[in-house]
Amino acid sequence: MSYNSFLNKPENALRRATELNAIAQPQAALSMLHEVLSSRRHKTWSPTYEKIIIFYLDLCLDLGRAREAKDGLHQYRNLSQSQAPGSLEGVIRHLIEKAEKKCADARDAAEKGEMPKPAAVTDADTEAKADDDDIDLYDGNPQSILLSTMSTDPEKAQRETAILFPALKFLWEVYRAVLDILKSNSKLERLYHAAAVSALRFCAEYKRRVEFRRLCDMMRMHLGNLQKYGGVNVVKFEDGGKNNKVRGWEGWTAESIELHLQTRFAQLETASTLRLYTEGFRTVEDIYNILQISRTRRKLPGVNIPPPKAKIMAAYYEKLTNLFWVSENYLFHAFAWYKYYSLCKEFNRGMSEDMKTKQASAVLLAALCIPTSTSEKGKGGSQALGRDAIQSTVEDDIAKEKMARMATLLGFHTTEPSREAILAEIRSRNIMEDVPDYLREVYLILEEGTDPLDMVSKARSLLDTLRAETGVTSDGDAKPEGEVEDTEDHTLAKYVEPLTNVLILKLIFNLSAAYHTISLDHVKNLTSGLGVSFEQMEKSIVLSSQSRALSVRIDHRLGCIRFGSAALESDEMRGQLSTLAKRLTTACNIISPSDDSSLTTERKAVYFDVRATVESEHLATLERRVVIEKRKEEAERLIQDRLRKEAAERKAEELARKAEEDRRLVREQKLREREKLQKIQEEMDALEKKRYLTAMGRNVENITMEELKDVDTEALAKEHAQKANKKKEDAENKVRLAARNLDYLVRAVRIEELPKIKASFDAKVKGDRQTYEEEVVESAKEAKEQWETDVTDKAALGGCAVFDYASQFESMIMSARKIVHEKACEKEDDRAELEAEKGKLDRARDRKAEEAQKAEEARLAAEKAEADHKAEEERQRKEEEKRVRDEEMEKKERIRMEEQREREERDRNDRSVPTRGGMGSSGMGGGSGGYVPPSRRGASGGGGGAGGGGSRWGNANTGGPSSDRGGGYGGGRYDGRDEGGNRGGDDRGGGGGRYDSRDNDRAAPATNSRWS
Hints:
By secondary structure, the chain is mainly alpha-helical. It has helices at 3-8, 10-22, 26-38, 47-63, 66-80, 85-112, 124-131, 142-150, 154-181, 189-205, 209-228, 254-273, 277-299, 310-326, 330-347, 353-368, 387-390, 394-410, 419-428, 437-448, 455-467, 496-514, 520-526, 534-546, 571-574, 576-591, 597-695, 705-710, 713-798, 806-912, 961-965; strands at residues 517-519, 552-555, 560-563, 919-920, 923-924. The protein has 31 helices and five strands. Strand 4 and strand 5 (923-924) form a beta hairpin.
């Protein structure tokens, strides 16, 4: 069987591949199936191709060929995506399940200590490698020796390298290929997200941090492509409108947005499990982008996409609490808890009181765990911090911007999240009412407690009570008992340690407000019983000092803590001399008080002068204020004039630059065209020169373009023509000479052969005559002998009587033949009758089938006509709806423009009222002098007894200067206009409107209203 038969019939290829695999030749089977899948002869899917791709993927799985598996999946995707998407889904699920099972089996084998079996393949190198599998990997391998010295279990590391890592690599490549194939397929979107969740689970289960980062980047790229090319504004209408930019993508729907959110939630949880907080924050940004897509889609007309479900958002914020907790970002951990509690309280009607109490307690404790920063400095009282402690730096501004951006991404209610903001929200929402009493006491101690001597003793018992708390704070499912390492702590006892740190910082703040120096032993006694070592407390103090929240120094030599800054430029050192001078002045005044009578008299005189000049100073101040305002207005006017002038200059420069650019482009285009034509001409000349040189017998392969340019075409053509003419003349001379020689030769031959021809002809005539005479004699002799023989035979036959019985024999034979003929005729008649009857039945059946076919064709034609009629009605209905919408929009636009023009007309009339003349007895005359509106310039009077401007466009049907502008008050752009330009029943003339009829036969009725 030829190889083409396998391509023509996939069934043969599948059977042959099965046979090859059965005889331990999987590589050949894989190559054959790959050729069948890559063949472009077949574009139609069939179930055989599904069997082929499944067997092909099984071979790739056995051989560990990830690249071939990816290529095969792409080929099968191109074949079945549009015809059988369900088959593609089944194939992908089969591949993922088999790859995951192989990976799990490899892990179990590595843990049990099993070594891999040699692979049975046909390649020589692979067989050699398989034969060496039983050899120790450390022999002759320096890398393996170094790894064995660093690993606690070298044999396990060797088994994982030999067994587990190839399976992990194959599974990872399968996930990448599947996600790349399904990244923009709306029909298999659920499969895409299921594969993404499986890949995330794979990264978390096998601790693959590098693969997790690559997976996040790939999914982020897919989401970005859907946002950029998939089109947020693409609407999936009922008529099947699809997006043409991304193949297979049908636009964003509520289901797709929900699936993306669920996948990102799983990604966020995996990032928290792997302690990759940067990827977690990027995932938060991805979730924000998806929510923005949902919000944007809801604003589009014709799109009915509900907002994300409260359950999904609650799960999102619940995962955020875990992420921010493990990353020790207590501020956003508290805000996430607050959002989660708000959603649960608002939408979870079945939440028990115990769970509500636990969640409210978690919200309060998460807020209290936020470390106190520079916000506590204002409560210090007498403690004055240095300038460096309150000065905002560039780093602080960057940190604030990052926090504001993160708050926006997470959907928090404020862009400046802080400890005070979350506590204020807790107080305003009455969350304190749902927390236990001992947590309220903790809140009072940490927020309102100022006594540093007893606050620790009061909080110690409360923290012990909190440490004994074991109630869970989440409704999530409990983890299995075996998963101890990555299990999240959902109890309230986890807040004891951060609360202890906050309590220590609060203690240090209060001590700094009450003391300048305090011994370390006293501080240790105050913090005894908290379960915190002095090293941890010292670390907290140093961190607070580095964040400029507290100015403190620890003196280990003297065993004390000093509060306040020791810098020479501090506020205390800068103002100590002034303070000393003030205090000495106060002491001198107490010891020897001065005479106050002269001071009192001076003060009275000063007060009298002040009262006398206060009014004038007030007036001067007001005048100065008016002058300043005028100067400001003048400066603003000058600035506006300068800006307008600069804008005009920039516009002129831009126009000039654009014109120059256009001219430059035209010049360059002409230059390019000229160069192109010149180049074409040069190439044609070079080809012509080469043709001449080739015709002249020269070699043109080694001739360069420069040498060809130096050759004169005309001289070359002339030389070529001369050589051609000379060659032609030589050929003609040769032909002429040959013809003359041939003529001489033929003439000589004919002269010499003439006698011989005559002699030959005579001999031939003589021989022919002799032959003829011999043949005549022989023929006569043979005829005579034949006649004699015939006469003898006739005489012998005449003596016999056989002819007497001929008639009797003939009659007997003919009677027998007549009987046979009659029987044959009877049989033929019977057969003809049967054939005729059968023909009648066949014709009846044909007529019935033809009638049924005609009836079916009529029914189909009626159905098609009805469908076409319905489609036409639907199209007309849509066109009618579109026309109605367009008319409504046009009507609204016309009304808006008319209102705008009316407002402009009213403004123009209001501006022109003071400049018009007085009212006369016969109308409003055009006033002389002063400002003349543009509509009245150049008009000598109106036709209605009043002078003035007419319509903007004049009268279209009347001639003359007086009828061109109308008269009287002056018509507006939209007023009606008759033949004389009058406005109607009043004596005030006016021009016609811009949109009114200009034909006298269709003149509008006269009216005195401007907006009629």
